[in-house]
Specification:
Length: 196
């Protein structure tokens, strides 16, 4: 009769070591890579016009996700060029002024400065312009990180395009607004970016 084989105790101990190290690895991984709620960061393209507030102020005409690393080419006179660019449109907010984004998203603005109809020495006095450009900047609860060599505040001359790329690492409600006194209602020329 053969004696039953027995594990040496060292096998059981090795098993425990393997289990313990695997568990430790998972713990360590979670420590290094904290769980992130929500979708991965997106790169949003926001296409806007800027008019004096009496004629509508800022207006978002289209919103899209950029699905490539390189930005579309840009020229202040011609604007952006989406030829060959990998992007897809998405439905923006219904007020055409508010932008919804997530923490970590990158946002590239393309803003066209619309000519106003009459300078302030003509009538109607409440629909007149005081400058030949709009301004653009953003403020809010966290820093606004300007990327790709753009700058804030920026200038949007009437009849020209302006672009800037930013990202947000702190959530909250940000405000984008005009920085050049452009009309009697200049102080109301603004919109919001809700970063969640
Ligand atoms: Cu203004």
């Amino acid at each position: 009769m053969q004696a039953p084989k027995k594990h040496l105790p060292v096998v059981g101990i090795l098993g425990l070591v393997v289990i313990a190290s695997a568990g430790g690895g998972i713990y360590y991984y979670q420590f290094l890579m904290p769980h992130v709620s929500g979708p991965p960061p997106a790169h949003r393209l926001i296409f806007m016009t800027a008019a004096i507030e009496e004629q509508g102020g800022y207006h978002i005409n289209n919103t899209a996700f950029l699905n490539q690393t390189n930005l579309p080419s840009f020229d202040p006179s011609m604007g952006y060029n989406l030829t060959g660019v990998n992007y897809h449109n998405y439905q923006g907010e219904s007020d055409n002024k508010t932008i919804a984004a997530h923490v970590g998203d990158t946002i590239t603005f393309y803003i066209y400065g619309k000519n106003a109809t009459s300078p302030c020495n003509t009538n109607p006095a409440n629909e007149c312009w005081l400058s030949t450009a709009h301004g653009f900047t953003i403020s809010g609860p966290g820093s606004v990180n300007v990327k790709n060599g753009g700058s804030l505040p920026g200038t949007i001359p009437f009849g020209k395009w302006f672009t800037v790329t930013v990202n947000f690492t702190v959530g909250g409600t940000y405000t984008y607004f005009c920085t050049i006194v452009c009309s009697p209602l200049h102080g109301q020329m603004l919109g919001h970016i809700n970063v969640t």
